[in-house]
Amino acid sequence: MGKNPNKRKKLISRLIILFVLFFVVFASIGLFVYFSFFNTSGQTQPQIENQLTTETENAKNQLKDTNFLKAVLPDSTDDQVTYSDYNDFASNHNFEFDNNAGADTQSRYTGRRINIAVVGLDSRLGTRSNHADANHILSILIDSGKIEIISVPRDTPADAGFDDSTGQNKLTVVRAVRGREFYLKELARIAHIDKIHYYIEVGFSQVIGILEFLGYKDAKSTLQLLRSRKGLGGDDYQRCYNQAQFIRQTILRHYSLINNGISGNLILRAGLALVNTNLNINIVQQIIDKLNLAGFPHSPNDITIKIRPPFPIKYKIYDFTNQDVVNSLIKKIEHFNQTHNEKDTIKINVFARLESVVSSAERDTLKRPKAVISKLLTYYEQKAWLQIEDENRRELIRSRIENCLVSAYTKLSQPSKASEVKNSMALERELFKIKKK
To answer: Cα separation of 292 and 288, whole Å?
Structure first.
């Protein structure tokens, strides 16, 4: 054979050693990846995602890496989480960041709480789809006179009752298919609180009315800004935080208004009439009195934000009380929508739609009062006329809807409902009179 047997044995030994080394290296890498990114105990994907927020140093270091986040926690409607480039903003704004909102290491308050869910429903004009696109909890810490805003992204895994393969077991879907009561239980579970005592639900029209009352010059565009998931980066996590920050800044800026005697009481009553809620004026006033006794707000730090489940990225803090900042962000959103072919789902010809519906209902007022209510009730509950920018046209549609419903309820011998419509409309008109002063 002509080959030295000793050399041959040495060659074989070296090959074996190399093979063992390669095996050890690749096996180590494989085990590291397996135990870092997967779960060997049969956990579900939501449980795997929850592992990412553990307090171990390794997890914390990994979560600082946006590439890691993109890879392991994709948005439910995208291939990966979209992150904005800080340089896109730095030339125009000097931003602060909230490093605590998504952390899982915040101190836990153990005193008494009053938990109020604030829910934004994505119910299109005239429909009752009621997907919960904005999910926030105002947790009033009665003993300390502080408020925690606990915010949950719409696509957070939740029990919507579907087969796991559908991809529809998300919090936003729970409200639409399983109703308010079950939704509130799921929201409380995700937020790690015992229960939700009260709720406030608003749709597009009501939010537009609120934004207008608060003094925003272009209420529809401001709503689009608060609803934008991609235009400012961070996907649903930053959007969720933006909404929470808007609520926080609004309370701090306008809290004194509701303590202003008769006008404050009117604002509260009109506000409750504008939204769908199980709160009443007495409960709200008791909550405000307790906060006042505690000296709320001592400082802006009396309202904090938590994102749940925890997702520890740096959340950009925008000053929504500054109209110049809002205008700049609106332009950015509009530019993003144009360049990415994003449709504007709010800016439609609402007057034409309502004019047609109301005209049809008016033809039924003499003989078909039930048909009148069937045609108009959803639009009335949505306060759909608030999407009409021209005030004269808005009042025209509002008055016609009021007249139709009052007439229909009167003919059906339901005077209390007729009075409810008239009182609600009167309070709304008074509310916007205050805005003009």
So the answer is: 6
Torsion angle defined by CA atoms of residues 124, 247, 111 and 196, in that order, rounded to the nearest 10 degrees = -10
Q: What confidence tens digit (pLDDT) does each residue in 381-426 have?
A: 999 999 999 999 999 999 999 999 999 999 999 999 999 999 999 9
> What per-residue string of b and e applies to 211-237 under the rule 16 or more CB within 10 Å gives b?
bbbbebebbbbbbbbbbbbbbbbbbbb
Mean pLDDT over the full length of the chain: 81
Q: Per-domain residue ranges for the chain?
A: 96-339, 350-436
Mutual orientation of helices 391-411 and 415-436 as an angle, nearest 10°?
160
pTM score:
0.77
Instruction: Determine the 3-state secondary structure of 34 from DSSP.
Output: helix
Token pair recorded at residue 265: 């009481």
Measured distance CA(242)–CA(249) in Å, rounded: 10
Pick the CATH number of 96-339 from 3.40.50.2300, 2.60.120.10, 3.40.630.190, 3.30.230.10: 3.40.630.190
